[in-house]
Amino acid sequence: MRDTRESRLLLVLLIAIAFALITVDIRGGEDSPAQGARQAAAKVFGPVENGVSGAVDPIGNAISAVRDSGARHDRISRLERENAALKAKLGSDDRNRSKIHQLDSMLKTAGAGQYGIKGAQVIAIGSAQGFSWTVTIDAGASDGIERDMTVLNGDGLVGRVTTVGPNTATVLLANDPDFTVGTRMEKTDELGFASGQGDRPLRVQLLNGKAKVKKGDRLVTFGSQADKPFVPGVPVGRVVRVDPSGGDLTRTVYVQPYVGFTKLDIVGIVVQAPRSDPRDQVLPAKPKPAPTVTVTATPSAPANGENPAQNDPAQNDPAGNNQAGNNEAGGDPARNNPADNNAAGDNAAADTDQ
């Protein structure tokens, strides 16, 4: 529409009419004459507004989602970091508890044997020297570690130190095929030599071919001259199999080590040997056998009013009862004989006649 004088007058007139209708509607309240027109307009334009709103809402939601996605992503990232931190803390607590338990067990073992030890942690498995069973520990020459020192943990013998660096050392494990240690049987003191067999039990050659040994017997280290490479009394393991004696000069037994060589962590290097041989003091205490309970059957008491004598077969014997009656009659068989009684009667009658 072109901007003319007539169009301006029409616009002013429409505005005046609109103000007049608004004024009348406000003053009229619910009785306003425009109420009917408003309801008719709502019926006509309501569906149109709903359709437009339904078409526009997804677009608006999408725009809001894009606008809020940054904040939501930041919140998810923060929650993921907090979750990872909690898991790390829980794992660290479990790890610390495990280390404390290993350290406590090792200190008890060292105390029982009076060993002076230097604690260390396994930091690597194997070495560049080949396929031998070795581990690397985080203690070396600067910590007083020397070659051919005994290595143990809370369970028993781990191995011996073979190579020493400034801050690390290599330990040859007791299950290595090149490992040999002198052993002594608990109580019987039978001597032998144990050799590693990898993931199989240790092979022990007893010097006495007629030695009496059985499954479950336990062994400790015999010790070396000047306590190198082995100090005495360190638990080695228990017998799991005994080869039959064939009259040889030696006897072979197989020993399951106390130490789990695939899960080593905290170890101790013996830097000071005990003043005296601890013998079997370092071995763990044997579990006490469960007490044996013996149940003895007790005869039941006689019921009230029951005469124990009635259970005596002799008392219930009819012949016995007759004998008892005879004894009450005087015990004289003649008194119980009818023939004798008749004879007595006859004699009495004869005396009377006379």
Could you characterize what this model shows?
By secondary structure, this protein is of the alpha+beta class. It is built from four helices and twelve strands, in the order H-H-E-E-E-E-E-E-E-E-E-E-E-E-H-H. The chain has helices spanning 5-28, 35-113, 318-328, 338-353; strands at residues 116-127, 130-137, 150-152, 157-164, 169-173, 180-185, 191-197, 200-206, 218-221, 235-242, 251-257, 266-272. The strands form two sheets. A six-stranded antiparallel β-barrel has the order 1-2-5-4-3-12. Strands 6-7-8-11-10-9 form a six-stranded antiparallel β-barrel. The longest helix has 79 residues, at 35-113. It is elongated. The termini are far apart.
What is the mean predicted local confidence, pLDDT? 77
C-alpha Rg, in Å? 54 Å
Quote the beta fraction.
15-25%
What is the global morphology? Answer: elongated
The largest β sheet comes out as: 6 strands, antiparallel, barrel
Stretches with pLDDT under 50, minimum 5 residues: 313-354
Strand order of the largest sheet: 1-2-5-4-3-12
Class from secondary-structure proportions: alpha+beta
Oligomer: single chain
Give the number of DSSP strands.
12
N-to-C CA distance: 191 Å
How much helix, percentage-wise, in residues? 25-40%
The DSSP helix count reads 4
